[in-house]
Amino acid sequence: MMNATRVWAAGIAAAMLLAAGATAALAQDTGAAGGAAGGKQPYTPAEYNSYIVCTQEKAPAAQVKCLDNFLTTYPNSTLVLYAYPLYYQAYAQQRNYAKVIEYVDKLLALGDKVDPGARYQALYARAFAYNNLNSNDPGQAVKARQAALDGLKALTDLKKPDNIDDPTFAGEKKKVALYFNGTAGAAAMTMKDYPGAVGSFKAVLAQNPDDPITNYQLGRAYIAMNPPQQMDGFWAIARAVGSKSASEQQVKSVKTYLRNLLVNYQQPGCENLIDSQMSELVQLATSSSERPSSYKFPSSADLDAARKDMTIASVITDLKAGGDKAKLTWLAACGLEFPNVPGKAIGVTAGTDFVDLKVAFATNDAQFEAAKMPDMDVKVVGQPEASRVEKDGLVQFTATLSSYDPDPFMLHWDKGKVNAENIPAEKKKPTPPRHPPTHHPKPSQ
User: Fold this and answer.
1) Cβ-based burial of 233 (10 A; exposed 0-12, middle 13-18, buried ≥19)
2) 219 and 271 share one domain
3) CATH number, domain with residue 417
4) Exposure of 93 by Cβ count < 10 A (0-12 exposed, 13-18 middle, 19+ buried)?
């Protein structure tokens, strides 16, 4: 959510613009302490003066003590309507947010006696206090959500003061509505009321679609629903990653979270394939707040279905055809080991610790004879004798698919092992001829 201190300041400014202050309202009602002496007010001059002393106290702790003394002396005073706001404002300055909530609730319990402006201010203060409590208590969350929803209604019911123009009034109400909706959404998440959270977060995004934290929270709410709404969840979190107003740290953190979600959802054989899919998702989501119904991120179940009856021949056919079928096939095939892949050896290169085979895929004699260019690159490790594979000869290998190039088409294989029958026996080195010993004549005696 927004920075709490900044929001509190903005809310207080909005409150002063949108509603009359409690002390000002009291002054209008009383006119002066002497008015009470004439019996026009339901409190005595001594009672009124005691209250006024508390309003003039600047130190929060001293003001709370003064108010305590006031209510001890006058426990049934009608001035509680004005004392309770002083209480929660003083406790807010002390950052005692539990007490803020306590005295807001006491004020709200007075019902229709509280005028719309004071009710609005109290509900805003309650939302601020709840957000700063960082409470995981579902009971607190239930009350906080209802109070935030009540705050939205109180905001709607406010009448525009004569000294504020229409654009200013509308702008201030928008700011506060964002905060109330954000508070209602956060409380709904704690309550595990995920549909309610979705509604509140979408209300925030209707006014501020680029907000990264709200998009992130909306995504979490979708994913936590029963059943989970993963597509909408991924889309919202991707919007948080692509937000122009997100900080570098926010982008990094949410991007890692989204990647982990996608890996867990898809479980691809080659995890690096997630990165290109995620980049595409972020690009699409950034351009539209609503996910198109046609968009789908392949799941592990989709990949399992694609692997059913899969052969290397079907993989090559699908990949060469291109389109969505090729994308799904590659996601399913990458990282799989295929046994006894047949082909024609076009090139054989012995490296330091591996043998590189360039092979043309061929499953029959006609394909074998016609093959001139390789379409498979096979890295054979731990089998140095594979360097004896004959060029233009038949080769069969077992290996793991690691990547492919669409144009010109080339499958790349790792962890290859050539079938032993395709490796010619090592030629024995010729034995050098043996020369008869040379006999030298013995010297004459």
Assistant:
1) buried
2) yes
3) 2.40.50
4) middle
Contact 386, 418 (CB under 8 A): yes
405 - beta bridge partners? 410
Distances (CA, A) of 372 to 313, 369, 386, 391: 18, 8, 21, 11
With 0-12 / 13-18 / 19 or more C-beta atoms within 10 angstroms meaning exposed / middle / buried, residue 260 is exposed
List beta partners, residue 401.
413
Task: Give dist(CA 393, CA 359) in Å, integer.
Answer: 10
Digit-coded pLDDT (tens) for 389-425: 999 999 999 999 999 999 999 999 999 999 999 999 9
Instruction: Return the closest-CA partner of residue 146 out of 95, 85, 92, 188.
Output: 188
Tell me the residue range of the domain where 358 lies. 334-422
Tell me how many helices (H) and strands (E) the chain has.
19, 5
* Measured CA distances, 146 to 142, 225, 337 (Å): 6, 21, 56
391 and 347 Cβ atoms separated by less than 8 Å:
yes
- Distance between CA atoms of 254 and 246, rounded to whole angstroms? 10
- ∠ CA 195-198-203 to the nearest 5 degrees? 135
Which candidate, 124, 188, 189, places its Cα nearest to that of 150? 124
Same domain, 224 and 287: yes
Distance CA 252, CA 420 (A): 49
Coil, strand or helix: which one is 412?
A: strand
Per-residue burial over 187-212, b if 16 or more Cβ lie within 10 Å, else e, is bbbbbebbebbbbbbbbbbeeeebbb
pTM (2 decimals)?
0.82
Identify whether residues 218 and 279 lie together within a single domain: yes
Q: Find out whether 340 and 361 touch, Cβ atoms under 8 Å.
A: no
How many domains would you assign to the chain?
A: 2
pLDDT tens for residues 127-173? Answer: 999 999 989 999 999 999 999 999 999 999 888 888 889 999 999 99
Q: What single-letter DSSP state applies at residue 300?
A: H
Is 64 inside a domain boundary?
no
Q: Which two tokens stand for residue 168?
A: 């200013």
Cα separation, 287 vs 37, whole angstroms: 68
Rounded distance, CA 333 to CA 118, Å?
65
* Two structure tokens written together for 76: 């049934």
